[in-house]
Amino acid sequence: MQQKLIYKISVYYYLRMLLFFVMLTQYSFNACAQNYKEDVSKIRSEYENKYHSFTIQYHYYPYDSVKKITDSLWGQCYHNGELFYCKIHSISGLMEYMKNKKYYVEINHPGKAILIHKSSATGQELWNMNKLDSLLMLPSVKVVYKSTPGNKGEYEITYDKGLWNHVRIVFDKEKYTLDEVWLYSVGKGKIYGQPYNKPKIGIFYKNYNQEIPSDKLFYDLMYFSMTDTGFTLTNELKGFRIMDYFHTKQS
Fold this sequence. Notes:
The protein contains four helices and 17 strands. The chain has helices at residues 3-24, 36-49, 121-126, 129-136, and strands at residues 30-32, 53-61, 71-80, 83-90, 93-99, 103-108, 113-118, 142-148, 152-158, 164-172, 178-185, 188-191, 194-197, 200-209, 224-227, 230-233, 241-244. Mean pLDDT is 78; it is low at 1-31 and 124-137. By secondary structure, the protein is α+β, with helices and mostly antiparallel strands. The protein has a single domain (3-244), classed as outer membrane lipoprotein receptor (LolB), chain A (Clam).
C-alpha cells in the first residue's frame, strides 16, 4: 500500500501550497506565461482572506502510462490565517491534522497514535526553505502557462532535479481558486513492496466556502492537556499512544 506516501504528499501540499505561491511571486523564471506573478498572488490572497474551507481528494497512479488509481484519499480542510485543521479519510481509516499557534498535531486513528509537535515543526519538516530558495534560483526551472476550456488557467512547472520534478496547477481564472494540482515523478522502484514507474498524484479542490470556521477546530484541549509530567489525552483518545515531539526532537 502507498498510504504512507499519499498521507505525506497530502499534508505536504495542503500545508505548504501557500508558501509555494509566496515564493513563486518573488523569483523570475524561464517562463512563457500569462502574468504568473499576478496570478499566484491573487490565488494566495483568496486562500488567505476569502475561502476558509474546501474539500480535497487525492488519487495515486503508480504508472504514468496506465490510468489506474491504486490509492485514494478524501477529506475536508479548514484554515484561518496560520491555523488549520484537516480531516482525511482513506480505506485505512481517519487521519486528523491540526495546527494552532503552539502545537502541530497529527492523529492517526488506525494506528491509535497521536503525534504532538511544536507549531513551527510544520515548516521545518514539510518544506526545507533553503532547498526551495536554491531550487527557484536555478536557470533550469521553467514555468509555462496555457488557457484551458471552462475559463481555467494552467501552469506547468518543471525542473531537472529531484524525483518529483513536474507540477501542473489548474485554477479558476474568475475566482482565483485552485481546481487541481498534479505531481509527476521520474522515479522507478518499489514503495512498501508495491512497484511504481513514473508515478503521478492528482489533488482536487472543491466546495470552497467563505465562512470563517469555529475556533474549536483549532483547540488543542479537544485532544489533550499538558501537565507537569507530560500530556494527558481526552476520553475520546484514551488508549492512543502519545509521540511527544514537543519536548523531544524527532529522530
